[in-house]
Amino acid sequence: MTDGILGKAATMEIPIHGNGEARQLPEDDGLEQDLQQVMVSGPNLNETSIVSGGYGGSGDGLIPTGKSISCAGREVWVGPQRCICLREAGVRELDPLGSGRHPSHSTTPAGPGDEVARGIAGEKFDIVKKWGINTYKCTKQLLSERFGRGSRTVDLELELQIELLRETKRKYESVLQLGRALTAHLYSLLQTQHALGDAFADLSQKSPELQEEFGYNAETQKLLCKNGETLLGAVNFFVSSINTLVTKTMEDTLMTVKQYEAARLEYDAYRTDLEELSLGPRDAGTRGRLESAQATFQAHRDKYEKLRGDVAIKLKFLEENKIKVMHKQLLLFHNAVSAYFAGNQKQLEQTLQQFNIKLRPPGAEKPSWLEEQ
């Protein structure tokens, strides 16, 4: 019955006057009642996926045109020249001249590769989610501390040692910069003395009346160049040792300090979160959140305690290493500078031998790392 009625409605012709206006057809009360019955007793669109047949197609699943239907909480208007396809995934508009048949759905089960991809995507999503929550809590805690509204955990003794380390590093960087400047000035002085000695030697050959005086000065400048090269080697060794102490040993300790400070901030953030939950009402949902917050807080507390111990140990070893290195380097610097300005070439050479410093001849290539071992 439904097929016949809808077929009749779909093939009705509407006469058109010359002025382009449609002329009303005689009312067919039976047809109108049947259409209303179809609309009322039609299929449940929220549970069934149907396709309109279109003109000339099969009458199965036809939806009368010019009606408003409800689909997933929304009203869809079906115009006189449009038909729709309702699926479980949504609503799609079809060509009215389509076949009107149900599309074939693939029933091929997902392969193991798809399951692995979904698992990886889920893990990445969880990582990003945890990172976002952690960043939010830490930022909130940091702002609270900056504005004086939040409390922070402080180890006074350790904080004092860390601040002392930062101050010591700044002072050693200043010494390193001055040492490099001294090296550059000494190198320029050596170049000037070497050129001056060559000039004196040349003039001693071309000025017979001043040959002896030019000769003395040439020998003096050559001796100064030799001693200056020895002093430059000692200063270079001093600067290299200070550079290693500042840029590697101290920097490594400060990297651990940064990790400790980040762990302290996380610890305080989750501690504050746990305190807020503890002060709230106790119900079934809050109890689960409280247990989860307690476990997370304990994990961050363990991390904070471990890094605090690591920082304390590294600070102790750094202080011992700094004293040992600087004792040797300061003694080297003092002996080398004193011997140079005293003109004691023998003592200057003994100083380099005492600290196992080998000078490279001018123009020699830098030794390989195997030769330096």
Automatic annotation (TrEMBL):
Subcellular location: Golgi apparatus, trans-Golgi network membrane
Origin: domain of life: Eukaryota
A molecular function (GO) term: protein domain specific binding
GO BP, sorted A to Z: actin cytoskeleton organization; intracellular protein transport; mitophagy; protein localization to phagophore assembly site; regulation of Arp2/3 complex-mediated actin nucleation
Name of a matching Pfam family: Arfaptin
GO cellular component, one term: ruffle
UniProt keyword list: Golgi apparatus, Membrane, Phosphoprotein
Residue ranges constituting the AH domain according to the UniProt record: 153-353
Region (Disordered), start-end ranges: 95-116
Protein name per Swiss-Prot or TrEMBL: ARF interacting protein 2
Organism of derivation: Callithrix jacchus
